[in-house]
């Protein structure tokens, strides 16, 4: 009915951009995502409506639908695999399809591949398990379980048509692309002001979000019900880019880069559940994963008079590290 | 597997799980008395009226009290323009505005009207916008802000399920035309301006047919 490639079209140079901006003439909150750079690979992931129109086996359609449902409403696994207020879609905005919002399809064509975070080759299920363990502060569904296969199938569906082992470095809007370095050093007080003026109405003054009639409405940005200290989004450059391109909800790209860095720093200066790779000593853990990760976080640093991450609080779960997070050697035993 | 204690956390989680009840203080009985001027339009049961070719009167029963109080203040100050309402609100004192808001918030919701004359396709489109949105046009699902069943979330995001279709549509058009601009951070404007006439018709009809509570 309408042009579903609107967002992407808007970003593509030439005649398409002209016609899109004509429609947008008197719009006060245009989406304003960056344009694709010369030679960048632009993929418009298919929708769930497109799925219904395929010739896929009905049983496959059902499993992909199940994966979609788990991705959008991961809270159905609360207390089993999820121990915070998040859904996958809380960070992978818009059904995991949107550029600059951590679209998930790249993982389906880039993996198996080497990942510095755990220093071995990971496949798609292991990548998903990573987000369960850190971002959802949880316990991943078993590899090969129904839920895992359904989730992986949804990712693969979104990647339909993308050549396997395409270059991950050249994809338009992949991940949360790093913003330019802030002009001024990130600042807690400025970040607090940005938060209070733009975010607090939903995520609340204490970062806990909003629960209405027992249902999560706005996810927690810090505290026990948020992601843990090992989550990728605790890195300032990741969070600032997420915020810039996706928040306040419905008004992407309205904050300045400086505001995005400051508010990311402010959020990252609060407590959250312990890093699953915690050794028992926060300084030691920070050092151990410094170069590959914590050089970009406030974990194990003293901010506003508090040493962050110096506790045994694992949030709503009663374990530190899921068993499935383990080293691999790929050598004969 | 290493076991870590989470004693305080479970307790904290539980207390957080309790939804925020309306904090507004007011005297419902006094509020009821002050509504003598309001019932002509908003009706005795607070259910309002859908008026197909004219200005609909919103249902107020069951709406969040803080939200209503803010609207009354905004209408009085002119931040929300309504010629119809202005005359009535200007006669209310601040205390009366609180009282009527508390009174209406406590009345049981009445079913919305105005969503009868629509096709199945329109209803399906309306449901999609309300529950899934249309991210390719950056239309965030209504439920992301208005609560899981669009029955409201906290004091800033009013329930829109079970509201009259005519009123929902009037308000969405009002935002688009720049007539309503009192929404916090223009959160609603950003969404309304991405909706076209078909979207508005469909989503208003679908929402009006949903339970308000």
Describe this structure in words.
The complex is a heterodimer of chains A (333) and B (213). By secondary structure, chain A is mainly α. Chain A contains 13 helices and six strands. In chain A, the strands form three sheets. In chain A, strands 1-2 form a two-stranded antiparallel sheet. Chain A has a two-stranded antiparallel ribbon with strand order 3-4. A two-stranded antiparallel ribbon of chain A has the order 5-6. In chain A, a hairpin with a 2-residue loop joins strand 5 (302-303) and strand 6 (306-307). Chain A is globular, with a radius of gyration of 20 Å. The termini of chain A are far apart. The model of chain A is unreliable at 11-24 (pLDDT under 50). Chain B has two domains: 2-105, Orthogonal Bundle (Cytochrome Bc1 Complex, Chain D, domain 2), CATH 1.10.760; 120-208, Cytochrome c-like domain (Cytochrome Bc1 Complex, Chain D, domain 2, Orthogonal Bundle). Helix content of chain B is 48%, strand content 0%. Chain B contains eleven helices and no strands. In chain B, helix 7 (120-131) packs across helix 11 and helix 9 runs antiparallel to helix 11 (197-208). The relative contact order of chain B is 0.16. Residues 1-20 of chain B have low confidence and may be disordered. At the A-B interface, helix 1, helix 5, strand 3 and strand 4 of A face helix 1 and helix 10 of B.
